[in-house]
Batch of 3 targets.
Target 1
Amino acid sequence: MSWILRMKLKYVAFSVLLLFFVVLGYIGFFFFDDADEEHHYRTSDEKNVGEVVEDIPDMEEEGNFYEGREDRLSELDDGSYHDFEVDRVAAPVINSIQHAEKEELPFLLWWTPFTGDQAKIKQCWEGKCLFSQNQSLYDHPLTKAFFFYGTDFHEDKVPLPRKAHHEWALLHEESPKNQPLFFYEDTLGLFNHTSTFKQQSSYPISTQYVKSEKYILNPLKYSVHEKDEFKLKHGLAPVVFIQSGCNPPSDRDSYVQELMKHIKIDSYGKCLHNKDLPKEYQSATTMHNKGFIEFLQKYKFMISFENAICDDYMTEKIFRTLNVGAVPIYKGAPNIQEWLPNSHSAIVVDDFKSPKELADFILHLDTHPKEYEKYLEYKRSGITNSKLNKTLQERQWGVDTVYKMSFITGFECHVCDQIHRNKKRVAEGLKPIEHKANIEHYGCPAPKKYDLPPINGAEDWERETWLWEYNDAAKRSAILKEKVLSSLKV
């Protein structure tokens, strides 16, 4: 068997396994949508989870994967293959630590186990670095930086004492509800490099839920007239709500409950449930299939409330709604207009004085087709938001694709490159550049409840929990800062 054929067979097997895990990631996207915001990039930095199964890259559509690429694929010690341009993995892959020591490469450790790499050398743009999650390398003289995944960050499990040449890097794409320590400067100021949804972070990943421009511009499945017919024929409400992460910090359930008093809303999730899905879609295993997506496409409006409020914190809730061709009723990132396809593509809750006023506006659009269609004009005119276009075109990383590196690899190389740049500056007799994060790299406002009646079926203390955690984290953050600074060693 030729080397090329053997390589292709192994890569096919690897791709099938990858596809299996990606499909698993889709299951429960709608019924367990808040759960999927946690740890959905955990198992491997090649597995960027997308939105629905129809958006998984099609190898045949994108051309022959192997054509002109054979000499760029390297076999790793686990028997899989990596593309140098995508994964940045560089030879050798056996005895990598010894090789890195010989070349005096910087060691960068994942202190919170994340990528699964025990010792992997990656070729970044300024030089090579060794990446590992082996904590026994803490004292190694070549260890220069520690990576932390935000949700798994614990103040009692940080690498101390902190040496003067040790840099800390934070990857946290998750909701502010996951780790309240990052509300505060005392914690964020301990990091040198960050990769978060905030555009002010060192390596911003604000568009992590947007696969491509094509994903947003997905053609409309049904016309407004057809949607109105579905509403009459099947007894559909004009608005659909599907959430199973109830009582989050954004207090969305109390607002939606009040909105329901003024307009009919079909709620299929666990939160404010008032309607069952068609029998064929009641299993969580069907939540990603084409039929279920088409079912959602019959609705004119979709409630798209994030579970927490923070600039640039946008998830599948807004971008999935744009993809299926419903008009989003959005509450989340206060600066959402910076990221929408145009200035008239979502109904922003903050623009209305009350749920009643919002309901009246939705009902007006529901009965005035031409006014409604203006919110879908971007499907025909394209994305006119220059910032969104520029960001999608210029980002190094990709989403749900094997043709671009993940943002995890991108952030790893960002930190590696900063270390190499400073190494060169010192060699040239220059002062190294000091990198330090601040509150703008993640900090979000305190959770806030609506002044609305209690949520049916929920205890009010559940809504209070988030503010309690927020206040408690202020004390914990101050203690952490003092502990780290007092441990500093030259």
Target 2
Amino acid sequence: MTDQPAFQRARSAEAKQAREAAILDVARTLGSRRGIREVTLTDIAAEVGMHKSALLRYFETREQIFLNLTAEGWREWSAALRADLAKQEQGTPAEVAAAFSSTLAARPLFCDLLAQAPLNLERNVSIEAVRGFKLGTLQEVARIGDELHRLLGLNEEQAVDTVATATSMAGASWQMATPGPRLRELYTSDPQLGHAVVEVEPRLRRVLTALLLGLIDGTNQH
């Protein structure tokens, strides 16, 4: 627990926003340090300096806290990726794949959240929370799609497939890349298990380059 005094209940919209921001900041820090799966609502409340029942006045569940961070991650990653792509006047599949893989690999917490969102986070929040999250994600996918259309001529379906492949692979690869100390020792000590130690960025880059080349080739043949 931090040394800060326990929060008093927010009495204004501004105070409520400050409480919510403090909770999200703590969840972000704990998630980065321990991994999302290891962080409980009690952990977050204790670190913020609130009782768990008080924290539930601001977020309906632990999963809503992390789903909010996932939505935040989508906005931040989309902006960074689009800024990278905007620098390219005539991007190649390899260059576009490199932008995707480098920006995702640079955001380990977001990669962790990408894996947890469909498995857990979306399943213990209100329908309204899921709807808002999905609509926000679709908006960012559309923005990325505009850049993919400009650089590679991808249509909407191809762009959605590209973003879905990149983000789902980033989430899965990050989980494999962070197996924990005991499993990592096993993988590195046995040559037969060396393939289990995954490097996120190179794998993403290879797969996305192949995907984009295939999409462009398929389009050209029609």
Target 3
Amino acid sequence: MNKKVLIISTSLRKNSNSEILAEKFKKGAVEAKNEVEIINLKDKEINFCIGCLSCQKTQKCIFNDDVNEIIDKMLNTDVIVFATPIYFYEMAGQMKVLLDRTNPMFPSDYSFTDIYLLATSADTNESSMDGALKGLKGWIDCFDKAKLKGVIKGTGSDDAASIKAQPDILKAAYDMGKNV
């Protein structure tokens, strides 16, 4: 069965390592005949959530920025993939801001069931990604039908495009995409 796959790339850096993993995941998913779209947050206007909670009643945010379109795509996809660099042992701030802004999704009907995380860090220890993983799992726990299906940990990737020196990680991202 072909799936709709939405990849959300959260890095703001050109030639980012997490975006390279996202492209490898996409290549595998496309070759497996899935419908794949990548959204890059570096091109988006995203305001901070102010916690007004009006979205819990209206299922719409009071802000009219790019998040509304992203939420619509998230609600209507089968698979969501988050690609993020790790900053100070946590997901990139722009990913966290996006997750906070998805509050209108909480009472909504949604299609996604499978969530993946593609993360890269300068640190060589895989535990450097535990904070990001915990944060994402907290978000996933708010959606009963959703499950974390896979994680790629691209450690030791500090300079732009340095993940390209790790063919095993690139292949893992490709294979994961191929098997969504």
